[in-house]
Amino acid sequence: VVVGRDGTVTARELDHKSETQIGRLTLAQFTNPAGLEPLGHNLLGATQASGQPMVVQPGVDSTGAIQQGFLEMSNVTAVDEMIDLINTQRAYEMGTRVIQAADQMLGSAAQLR
Questions:
Q1: pLDDT per position as a tens digit, 9-26
Q2: FRET label pair with 79: which of 17, 56, 67, 111, CA 20 to 30 Å apart?
């Protein structure tokens, strides 16, 4: 079985030398991909927020192409994300310390009255 960049699926039987087209893969685009509903197991479902799917042919009009035998990699760098997470955690800790100090000062001020 061979999948072409345009989504064409062809197969060759063992006793035949010619290839036969057995199908075609298509892609779906949404006006608001963030509105898709996670269904689990890397599946997403259309919602009113995402809009209706627009079925497009792979590789046409700036749509993505299909590549057989490739693994899609992550679009984030794990090290950068960990650094951002550590920075966010430190900022949160500093914020809680400021709130604790303000609370102690208000407690002390209340006892002076």
A1: 999 888 777 888 999 998
A2: 67
